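Notes to self, Olfactory receptor:
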Amino acid sequence: MISISNLSNPNFVLTGFPGLEVDYVWLAIPFSSIYATVFLGNCMVLHVIRTEPSLHEPMFYFLAMLALTDLCMGLSTVPTVLGILLGLLEEISLDFCIAQSYFIHGLSFMESSVLLAMSFDRYIAICNPLRYSSILTNDKIMKIGIAILGRSSLLIPPVIIRLKFLNYCRPHILSHSFCLHQDLIRMACSDIRFNSIYGLFLVISNLLLDSVLILISYIMILHTVLAIASREERIKSLQTCVSHISAVLVFYIPIIGLTMVHRFGKHLSPLVHVLMGNTYILFPPLMNPIIYSIKTQQIRRRIQRLFYLKGT
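result:
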């Protein structure tokens, strides 16, 4: 247990994978492969969108935002997760922990916002296709991107900065291989009411509100699609939403699972908490490039062409 005498700048012990310490070297192999897939997959999506003129349209601009967010999420956790598995890191400073917490939560809110923007894109494309290009102009997409960035980065500092001024008198042992806001306030002996209330406000105003608006948009999309007379046209319209629906499920299901484990799974093994935490962090960045590469015809063809050219 880390000494807690230095309350002004404490260090925190990172929890790796309890019970699997002797297998860390072997665990490093699949985790390194996952991180490599996250980086290469999202970089490939960004490269394809940037270099293919036919993909320069609103839906793919939002997809580029999603890929960039996923790429940054992977970069924010790779130092601590692989650092533990490779035996290079056992504890981190408060400042590093606060910075990592800021990026993890900020990027999570950003991904939720991008998914909401993508649902708006699908709503306009299906419910008002004749005005699609006039509504989602490049200028408006840029403004949406700036709004997403501002919403995700400027609302979090009040609750994150306050972490610097709390006294941490409880055992400095984190629940995961990375830092989360709820983990840090659990160790604090100071008044944490502001962090708890403001943190709840952020979750409600970002994740919960976004999920409700996404659901409403799909209810309206479904209402419009069911009014189409042709069965083939209905199927074709819904198929354009499959990738986005999959991305929404890939993002929200791990969050719900992690929340349920934290709330009702206190009797579960710490390994379950660690695995759920890593799933919440790594599953969306890993799966989104795969989903869009398989389900989006334009991207799939461009990637196939890219590999074909390299093979020749």
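- The beta strands are 11-13, 91-93.
- The longest strand covers residues 11-13.
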